[in-house]
Amino acid sequence: MVWCGIDLGSRNVKVALLNNDGVRYYKFDTIKFYREHGRLVNGKLQVDLESLLSVEEQIDTVVSTGYGRQTVNLAGARAIPEIKAHVLGAAYATGLTDFTLLDLGGQDSKVALVSGGRMVDFQTNDKCAASTGRYLENMADVLGISTEELSRYHENPVELTSTCAIFGETELIGRVVEGYSTASLAAGVNYTIFKRIRPMLQKLLSPVIVFTGGVAANTALRKIIRRELAVEVRVPPAPQYAGALGCCLAARREGENRG
Amino acid sequence: MKIGITTTVPVEIIYAAGHVPVDLNNIFITHNRPESLVEQAELAGYPRNVCAWIKGIYSTVLENKDIRTIIAVTQGDCSNTHALMETLELAGVTVIPFAYPFDRDADLLRLQMDKLMDRLGTDWTAVQRTKKYLDEVRSRVWEIDIMTWRDNLVSGWDNHLFQVNCSDFQGDPAKFAREADAFIKAQRQKEPDRQSIRLGYIGVPPIMDDLYDYLEERGARVVFNETQRQFTMPYGVDDLVEQYRLYTYPYGIFYRLKDILVELERRKLDGIIHYAQSFCYRQIEDLIVRQKINIPVLTLEGDKPNRLDARTKMRLDSFVEMLR
């Protein structure tokens, strides 16, 4: 028996396959995924998952989530809300039942308070995506370094004040001209993300933060959160796939309930 | 003549003076392309980062040449209204200011009403008579509200629509009363909905019109529309000054919360949606709302008139899922 979870993100489509042996992950560029592997049939996105993922067994149940689920209706899949998927995935991956979930993706920042295994409150960004992965990518580009390199720095951050991710680029260029080191500039960028998510985190804080999404790979940000908020920061294995994993678990539950 | 209003004012005075009130918000939002009105105001020079309601009202008045006089609420709504008045004056519109006293002072409120009566040419006797009649019309909408939360026969959208129209009774109270009667009769035949999650909606009315239907498709029904209900003058008092003192909307968040907390209990709400318009000072008050309300609160922000965007839908889904 194989269960499938799909997280239709803004930058990547993440797929998780779960069977009794364990879980496997796949990642596709979002635009490529829609262009090359999907086609619209009766207003629904048809994807031949078995051949795309080259699995031999038949997939039992598919559950999807992600930004795409509002615009794309994946044929044959039940959709669940993103935050629920991430909470399920994070709880399973860490074995925790009480924590604050922080999920930072391509365009999303989400914070959820989980108590006794249930989500009791959440906050998300709205109207602005200046605190997400896309911002980090842009800023790394401006500095001429990779996002991996960017994520190493957290000491002596330069002050960046712009509230707009696009104007932020101009501000960063100004700081480059002023002669700050790449380390300071990169630390400033990482701190900017923290300042943006801090109000959300503070409202829903608990002693353990489970950090998921692509941005969880940013080790500097983990250190900043730990230092500034005095909390434990846990990053589960494959943090970018927490949503897809959560969908898998929902699919398995659905399959079991069906009998 | 038609008199435009920027928000609810003592509409009894306008009718008693033989004029027809027009709630400019309703004309704006039921326009076939309301977003074009916002764009029009931006082309005229209104900043992008200003409430879309103000911009919509501005263009609405300029487009409706039969509305040359407006009553603008200068205290008890928002300060953007001041600049709205000024820009409309510049365009040759007659603006009559009306102020709800910040501390709900009865003498000051009576004085405001006296001045409005003088200005429009009517008196207390005529106004009292009109009030009596309008209360009869309102009583139908009070019943629609009860049919929403107690009898579970009315959708959140219909509840919103009938209540929000009590700011001006669509310019024809008798016709509006007949519509309400017909609606009540039809809804009485329906099967009650006892399954849905029960939501409260607080804040100004939403700028997107598909919110209620979207929630109902997901198994959640709005059974309390805070501000819209206030437009119906729900307390049923005889004295006109007292009526507009009890009316919560112009008087700050703590006074509003008293009403909200009573209704939250009475209507057995599972969760509350706090709507705030982009760039509105009421966004700040969200922090007070969250501290004072002890059931889950989802804060929604709306900017341009439109359908719900993907992100707002995602947030609504998660909220409903959380309450289930």
Automatic annotation (TrEMBL), chain A:
Domain ATPase BadF/BadG/BcrA/BcrD type: residue ranges: 5-251
Cofactor: [4Fe-4S] cluster
Protein name: CoA-substrate-specific enzyme activase, putative
GO function term, MF aspect, one: metal ion binding
PANTHER family reported in the protein's UniProt record: ACTIVATOR OF 2-HYDROXYACYL-COA DEHYDRATASE (PTHR32329:SF5), BIFUNCTIONAL PROTEIN [INCLUDES 2-HYDROXYACYL-COA DEHYDRATASE (N-TER) AND ITS ACTIVATOR DOMAIN (C_TERM)-RELATED (PTHR32329)
Keywords: Iron, Iron-sulfur, Metal-binding
A Pfam family per the record: BcrAD_BadFG
Gene3D superfamilies referenced in this protein's UniProt entry, alphabetically: 3.30.420.40
Domain of life of the source: Bacteria
Keyword field contains Iron: yes
Keyword RNA-binding appears in the UniProt entry: no
InterPro entries, alphabetized: ATPase_BadF (IPR002731), ATPase_NBD (IPR043129), CoA_E_activase_dom (IPR008275), Dehydratase_Activator_Redct (IPR051805)
TrEMBL record, chain B:
Keywords: Iron, Iron-sulfur, Metal-binding
Gene Ontology molecular function: hydro-lyase activity; iron-sulfur cluster binding
Gene3D superfamilies reported in the protein's UniProt record: 3.40.50.11890, 3.40.50.11900
The keyword Membrane appears for this protein: no
Keyword NAD in record: no
Cofactor or coenzyme needed: [4Fe-4S] cluster
InterPro entries the UniProt entry points to: FldB/FldC_alpha/beta (IPR010327)
Pfam families, per database record: HGD-D (PF06050)
UniProt family annotation: Belongs to the FldB/FldC dehydratase alpha/beta subunit family.
Protein name: Benzoyl-CoA reductase/2-hydroxyglutaryl-CoA dehydratase subunit, BcrC/BadD/HgdB
Organism: Desulfoscipio geothermicus DSM 3669
